[in-house]
Amino acid sequence: MKTGKNRISVKQLFFVFTIMVSSPTTRLxxxxxxxxxxxAGWVSPVISAVPFILLILIIDSLLKKYKGQSMADIISNIMxxxxxxxxLIVYLLWSLWLTAMYTRYYTERLTSSIYPNISTGxxxxxxxxxxAYMLHSGFTVIARMSEILLPxxxxxxxxxxxxxxxxxxxxxxxxxxxxxxxxxxxGSIAVTGxxxxxxxxxxxxxxxxxxxxxxxxxxxxxxxxxxxxxxVNLIVIGVLNSSLARRVSMPVLTVVKQISxxxxxxxxxxxxxxxxIFTDFTMITTLLVIVLKLFKxxxxxxxxxxxxxxxxxxxxxxxxxxxxxxxxxxxxxxSLLMPINITLGYGFPFALYFLSKLKNRSKSKKAIxxxx
Amino acid sequence: MKIFLLVLVVIIVLMADMxxxxxxxxHKEAVFLLIxxxxxxxxxYYYITHEHTASLANLMFEIFSSK
Lengths: 372, 67
Description:
heterodimer; A: mainly alpha; Amino acid/polyamine transporter I; two-stranded parallel ribbon; two-stranded antiparallel ribbon; 16 helices; 4 strands
C-alpha cells in the first residue's frame, strides 16, 4: 500500500502497535501472569483476545461512520465540544504519563541489565535526542522503520523459543484445571491493559489510508500479538516455573541467559537487549506523536513541530521524577495502571460506541416524526 | 548549577522554536509554547529541589488512595 507524506497505512499502524506491545510483553507480562495464575499463566492471553477483537470492531464501526476524521474529532462530535475537550485532556495526560513511564522503564531495564554504572539521566537524554530529531521527519519514518523491524523481532522470538524448547518442563505448565479460570482471568488483566494502547493509536486515524482493511489487519494483529505473548509466557513459565518467574526481576533475560547450543553458542542475551532498545524507542516515539496529536486537537493548533523539543525536555523531567526507585513504578503498574488502561482503552470506547448508536437512533426518530 | 542548566536549556529550546513562530505570525502557537516552557521550568525546578523524594507514582497512589 503506497502512502503519501504524513500518511500511513493501517497495516503500518498495526506493525507499530505490535512492536509497541512487544516491549511490555518481555518486561511485565510473564511476571504478572505467573503471579496471578501460576502454572496456568500462559493461557491468560487467550481471554484478552475477546475484548481486543471487540475493540477492533468498535473502532472500525466508528471510523466507517465518521470517515476522514481523527478519533479526537469523533469524540468531540459524539460527546459535544466541552465534554469532548475534557475527555481529550484526560487522554493527553494519560499518554504523557505513559511516555514518561516507558522512558523510565527503558532506562531502568538497561541499567539493571548491561549498563549498571551509567546514570539514568544520561540514558534518558541519549534516547530523547534521537527521538526529537526523528519526529521532525514525521511519523511515517517510524511506520516504515517498523515494517523493517517487525520481521526481525518475530524471527528472533521464534529462534529463541526454538532454542529454549528443550529446556521447557511440561510439569511447570500443567495441570490446568477448570478451577483455574478465575486466576487465568486475573492474569489476563495485564495483557488486556497492554493491548488497550490500540485505542490511543487511532488518535492518528486522520493520517491513515486504506481504512477498509482495518478489520482484516486487526484480526491478524490480534492473532500475532496474542500468540507471541502466549509464547513468551509459555517459555518463561515452562523454563523457570511460576514461583521463580514471578520473583525474578527480568524473567525473559534470565531465561535467554540459559541458552546454550552445543556448548559453543552462549550468552546471546545481547540480542534481547538490542530488541528492547528498538522496541522501547518505537514505543516512546509513538506515544510522543500521540501526545503531540492530542495537544494539537485540544488547543486547535495548526502545527505541532515547534513543540517537539520542549515536550522532550518536559518528558525528561517527568521520567526522572516519576519514581524514586523501580519498585515504586512496578507497584504502580501492577495495581493502578492496569485499571486505568482498561477504563480508558476499553471502557470509554465502548461507551462512545453506544452513545453514537443512541445519537443515531434519536436522529432517525426525529427524521420520521419531526416536531412541529 | 543544575537550576542554571535547566533555565539555559529551556530558554535555548524556547528561543529556537519561538523565533520562527513569531516570524510566521503564529502567535497562538507561540503563546502555548511559552506556557509549556513555563510548566517545564516549574516542574524541572521542583524535581531538582526534591531530587530524592520527588515521585509522581506516589502522588498517584495518594490521589487514588490505594496504598
